[in-house]
């Protein structure tokens, strides 16, 4: 009986000792495959990425990630066993993948440490409002390749011809011709300078008395109407502006690095 009790005590002690050793390992790894640990940090990274893509975090997702990582470790070990890690093409792909991870981390860190501030956002919005102007114009135009045709069209308009009908007949602008030359509502600066200047000189219902030459050809322009500029509030355009400004800041950061780089 004493011998049996002694053996039981030794077994219990061994179990306690084994548990004490394995608990830290379990805390650091989700699994150990053929002696190689699969760290919790790797699983956490995969879970975060899947959550970012829209999957809800749950015990089921974490179990799926564990199973996937174990499977990957098994396959990766087999690839190494077969000597594929020494393959030139494989090495190149591994380096490209490593670069991709580093670049994404760099971009994320830059965006975190160089955010678009509210002051930056307000300044850009005010600048755009100023560029937009305080008026919008509903215009029509007829685009032709030569000055003579433009003058002939103006003569027809003076004779009472319909601007829309002449646009459909003569205009070479595929975007507006079949709509009677209609350009819809736009600020003047949406057009090339020569066109904008002529448009702003017109009164409602007037058309240009002489052809307007631009890089596109010769225009006859009619002003249907004008109104105060319909500029959306900052809150409505904030997401688009933030994205645009973030992209600009990132591009400037990349351009700066390229300029400083020594390339041979």
Automatic annotation (TrEMBL):
Reactions accelerated catalytically: [protein]-peptidylproline (omega=180) = [protein]-peptidylproline (omega=0)
Domain PpiC: 134-225
Enzyme class: isomerase
Top-level division of the source organism's lineage: Bacteria
Gene Ontology MF terms: peptidyl-prolyl cis-trans isomerase activity
One matching Pfam family: Rotamase_2
EC number: 5.2.1.8
PROSITE patterns referenced in this protein's UniProt entry, alphabetically: PPIC_PPIASE_2
Signal sequence coordinates: 1-27
UniProt entry keywords in alphabetical sequence: Isomerase, Rotamase, Signal
SUPFAM superfamilies in alphabetical order: FKBP-like (SSF54534), Triger factor/SurA peptide-binding domain-like (SSF109998)
InterPro entries in the cross-refs: PPIase_dom_sf (IPR046357), PPIase_PpiC (IPR000297), PrsA_foldase (IPR050245), Trigger_fact/SurA_dom_sf (IPR027304)
Record-stated family: Belongs to the PpiC/parvulin rotamase family.
Name the UniProt record assigns to this protein: peptidylprolyl isomerase
Lineage: Bacteria, Pseudomonadati, Pseudomonadota, Betaproteobacteria, Burkholderiales
